[in-house]
Amino acid sequence: MRVAVVGGGVVGLSTTAALLQRGVDVVCYEQAGEPMAQRSAGSSRIFRLAHALPDLVRLAAVARAGFGRWESASRTSLIGRSGCVISGEQMPVWAAAMAAAGAAHEVVDGASDGLRLPARTPPSEALLDPVGGVIDVDAVRAHLTELTRGAVLRAQAYALEDSRGGATVWSSAGEARFDAVLLAAGAGTSPLAAQVGIYTPPALAHHVRFTFPFDSPVAWQCWIDTPSTDLGTYQHQTGPGSWAVGGHLDPALTAWEVGREAATTASRDAVLAYARRHLAVEPRIVDSLYCVTTPDLGDGFEFRRNGPILAVYGENLFKFAPLLGDVLAAACVDGSTPAVPDVALNY
Ligand SMILES: Cc1cc2nc3c(=O)[nH]c(=O)nc-3n(C[C@H](O)[C@H](O)[C@H](O)COP(=O)(O)OP(=O)(O)OC[C@H]3O[C@@H](n4cnc5c(N)ncnc54)[C@H](O)[C@@H]3O)c2cc1C
């Protein structure tokens, strides 16, 4: 069997690795000079079991086991053990989802010894996810690069056709036929999927994460704080003395049409104001990470198929990568379309 994976982000590479493990002949098309350069760029992400839905909590637990297998194979720690804290208006819903999924968690008050946050005033109540921690993206990239060596083709796929029981991919490297194609091209998925009659949400938005210095030897927990309806924050330690804050603003401020510059300015203003008011960090931005996201999807993923071509889309996918790789590789081989609730039940 011959499979094409379009996109060498963390999802495409994880799937390529899982296909190779099944003995499948696979070509992973990646247009950038190196894999994991777009939405999967940077050196860190948050891993957490905590989600708003019990299915996503269960799926994250399966993904954590997958990271564990990668850790054993690479003999490298891929996820830190700081834990993750959730505070703000969504906290009770996430706590209920953790309880329904049977995941270890604790709801504590702000005075608890269990909280280690760079907060000027601790939240009145918070959910503790002890399994959460910082994903070492550089180490994941190194592991997946090793596993997929020889299967990644530096080329841009620009056209697809479902033909004669298989699919043809036209790319900057020429034309090739495959038995199955997976579209895992992040922001590039929707235009390719549309060519073969698959709808994936086409809207794009801008997202920027900012890093602040702080002076403390403490290992802070990852922190998801929603201080108001206007701002949600995803925060974690990116290294000794550096704290990253990604802000989720009113979607109108970061919509694609607003433009990268205006969206970056709005994000910087909101995150800086939040840092000044709420965080015990120096209110000085020392680094930033920009990416193109798909608005309104929140956490989680979806799969869509037409004939031999399968597309995956979603947001905050890094933490699910080992699970997605396995599920997508199996679907490429058996021609099925996984449904998210079934995935949660079957694993
Ligand atoms: C600042 C920031 C913070 C985040 N925080 C978290 C977090 O804490 N936890 C979490 O789980 N997730 C987080 N995410 C989201 C997560 O990183 C992404 O969901 C995940 O990396 C997406 O991976 P992907 O493989 O789907 O997409 P991508 O990494 O974008 O990969 C798609 C690849 O396809 C290639 N491509 C596109 N079109 C074509 C084409 N036509 N031909 C060939 N190649 C093509 C691109 O070059 C790209 O490399 C964050 C993202 C950002 C940017």
Q: What can you tell me about this protein's structure?
A:
There is one protein chain. The protein has helices spanning 10-21, 54-74, 91-101, 137-147, 189-195, 251-254, 260-278, 321-334, 340-346; strands spanning 2-6, 25-30, 44-47, 84-88, 106-109, 125-129, 133-136, 152-154, 157-163, 166-171, 174-178, 180-183, 205-213, 222-228, 231-239, 242-248, 287-293, 300-306, 309-315. By secondary structure, it is of the alpha/beta class. The chain has two domains: 2-40 and 140-202 and 298-346, FAD/NAD(P)-binding domain, CATH 3.50.50.60; 84-130 and 204-293, D-Amino Acid Oxidase, Chain A, domain 2 (2-Layer Sandwich). The strands form four sheets. It has an eight-stranded mixed beta sheet with strand order 5-6-4-14-15-16-13-17, with helices on both faces. Strands 8-2-1-12-19-18 form a six-stranded mixed beta sheet, with helices on both faces. A three-stranded antiparallel beta sheet has the order 9-10-11. Strand 9 (157-163) and strand 10 (166-171) form a beta hairpin. Helix 1 (10-21) packs across helix 8 (321-334), helix 2 (54-74) crosses helix 8 and helix 2 (54-74) packs across helix 9 (340-346). Bound molecules: flavin-adenine dinucleotide (FAD). The site of flavin-adenine dinucleotide (FAD) has 36 residues, from helix 1, strand 2, strand 3, strand 13 and strand 17. Flavin-adenine dinucleotide is lined by residues 6-12, 29-32, 36-40, 45-46, 156-157, 184-186, 188, 192, 207, 209, 234, 246, 289, 291, 315-319. It comes from Pseudonocardia alaniniphila. Residues 2-330 form the FAD dependent oxidoreductase domain.
